[in-house]
Here is the input.
Amino acid sequence: MMRRMVTIAVIAIVLAGLGAGVCAFADTYTFNFNALASGAPASGGTGNYSSIQNYMNWVLGCSIKAPCVTVTGAVADQTYSGDGHVVGPKVGSSYKSLTLGYSEGATNSNGTLNSSPDTFIANTSDKSTQVSNEISIKFTGVTISGLVSFDYEIFPDGSCTQLSSSNCGGKAKNGIYPNQPDLEFEAGNNSNGTDPYVTSFGTGGIQYGVAPGTTNGSAKHSWSSGSKTEYSPQYIGTWSGSLNSVTELDFIDWPATIGIDNLVITTYKPPTGVPEPGTIMLLGTGMVGLTGWVRQKKSKKR
Here is the structure.
């Protein structure tokens, strides 16, 4: 009996240790998209920088011919500013739009403005051509488990130039107008056909554009409005949180344009033939419990 107990205890310890060791395969990746030229499509082309998808696979160390990430509905962007209606600081005698292309990690509309643009991904190009109403990033053989963060922007749109029923498609419901620009963030598992909302993002997984100078910084003027107040609702910010066993990230917009930059993900990619950490830990826990049961049974016999 003693030999059996020792054997069970050793197996339990080894399995628990394996569970802890496998976690070492977790890694963090940052996608700043700066290597991409403006106008690079979601997928296609040859070379690491010919498309957003190729670039992300290159960062993850995956083959372009056998990708571990697929991207749809996005285009590389740098200078789009909602046709000049994005607000920002005054530079010289005019106002400059503070966008993802001209800032790094901006949490509000009066953040630090970069002198030259870098690249972010959006569903509208620099030439104001909308390519989709959803940016979708799907992973294969890679699971997001842990910290995720990204910069995002909700650009102003011509269908909602001021938060009122006459300017935004009709009467507001629960304080939200029909055409009020927004960004809906969903994260889930594409294998089960459902993507649950990430409820810590905005309200119920949705962040809405706000009137300039209210809740998202003090900037009230845009290149288009000049010295007059800009009224088109918009938003720029940064989100971070923890996700578990996620294989798909979706950024959904209505109407018009959203942008994403500096996407950071924590992934788990097990080597071939090695079970997920949770499976190993479950086995280890079961073995530890079995050891306790054997001890208890032996104690009762005494």
Observations:
- The first strand starts at residue 26 and ends at 31.
